[in-house]
Amino acid sequence: MTAPASSQTADGPLEDPAPTGGLDRGVLAVAMCVVLGAIMSILDVTVVNVAINDLTKEFDAPLATIQWVATGYTLALATVIPITGWAAARFGTKRLYMISIGLFVIGSMLAGLAWSASSLILFRVLQGLGGGMIMPAGMTILTQAAGPKRVGQVMSVVGIPMLLGPILGPILGGWLVDDVSWRWIFFINLPIGIVALFMSARILKKDEPQRAERLDIPGLILLSPGLAALIYGLAKGAELKDFTKPEGLIPTVVGAVLVIGFVFRALNAKSPLIDLRLLKRRSVAAASGTMVLFMAAFMGAMLLLPLYYQTVRGQGALHSGLLLAPQGLGAMITMPVGGKLTDRIGPGRVVLVGLVVVVLSVAGFAAILEAGTSFWALGAVLFVMGLGMGMTMMPTMAAAIQTLEHDEVPRASTMLNIIQQVSASLGTALISVLLANKLASNLKPFGAGGQAKPGQKVPEAIMHKIAGPMADAFQHTYWYAAGLLLLAFLPALFLPRKRPDTTAAEKTEVPIAVH
């Protein structure tokens, strides 16, 4: 069912808002449902990051293995996102959104019951498969309801979980790990998910399934296994410090061939799984390139500091979470401002300023991180990093969406979410392996190189000797993240630097899906 964008929302007819004005009550009601679902899935990422150290001890596994608790989750998100558009038409957006939340909750419960590192990774993958459509489905619902003139404001609303995640996630996760049990970092999703389901059932209007385009089965077979094999192979090769060994080379080659095959199919198929032809638009291509490099570097860097606090400085999970809060506070300041500036002056200028701030912050960690660096100094750098993050992530997404026609928004939203999750998976896997390898190298003179694990218990006398070399490993790894972020400037230079013009979708009465 469709209705004019100016007169219909989730709650029915409302006064016609100004196209560039604030978000009306109907859109805000839909936003509440979308944000709650997004908070649940994003909190899960940040909660797990602060628990990685304890999980290495709990399951007596190296960092290169345990990091797949994070990487497997984000990779699973990426592999299931492509079917969002088809599933939304086939089942209806409200039904799809609620099914996604329900499956995510089931996966969370199973992860909390895990008995080994392998079972935990498996259940995290299941959790990701269940929740992978939460964000793209929610973004499609919200961006279509608000209209292209208010995309910047909508991105700021969707960005609320991005603000709360870095603040609440580490603190909540640290408290649960220290005072309750690591299992509750997953069980906590159950009550949140139930509330999200209840609100969605009450607020989102029922929509009838429509005739969906045929699902691109060959594309799905090429893309999902291809991404998994490629990322696994690259991570394995980096872990072994030799990309020519069969354990890493074979999955890398197989994955690359499958992904290349998918690209050819996506460019030529009538109804591809992901419409890569959107990349012919300069704004979409520039935003995608910026997103790849930024997310890989930023998400990888986010893994480092909680491990540093716990292994080098001996802080508990809760204290580590509290020490990470300044980043979220910084983002909370600039995220709403960045959204409004994006609508007024265009995303290009906003993103470039944000990137400068983030690069300087990551380089700051690489410059000052030592065994005894002041917590106040680290907190100040984190705060500044948060300021930059608030001006980078959502404006980059808005840059791609602002110039699109109404019917192109769901396809672009799906593609950008896949890019975001795959980049995060690559960054997390790459940075964790680089850290593990550098730790092993630095600790080798102390007889611990081959067994270096961030989570292992080290006697205080020995810890006093190795704290410096361990801090050096973290410092060294931050330089890699800074280098990746510098590369992000190249595509960011091509982002739109003026406010969006009236699109063809706005020149006519825009049909939007009623949810």
Strand content: under 5%
Question: What is the third-level CATH name, the topology of the largest domain?
Answer: Growth Hormone, Chain: A
Mean pLDDT: 77
Assembly type: single chain
Cα Rg: 22 Å
Please provide the count of β strands: 4
Segments where pLDDT lies below 50 for 5+ residues? 1-20, 502-515
* The CATH superfamily title of the largest domain: MFS general substrate transporter like domains
The CATH architecture term of the largest domain is Up-down Bundle
Describe the global form: globular
Encode the helix/strand succession as letters. EEEHHHHHHHHHHHHHHHHHHHHHHHE
Strands in their spatial order, largest beta sheet: 1-4
Distance between the termini: 9 Å
Query: Which structural class should the secondary elements be placed in?
Result: mainly alpha
In which range does the helix fraction lie? over 70%
How many structural domains does the protein architecture include? 2
Largest pleated sheet: 2 strands, antiparallel
Under CATH at level 1, the class of the largest domain stands as Mainly Alpha
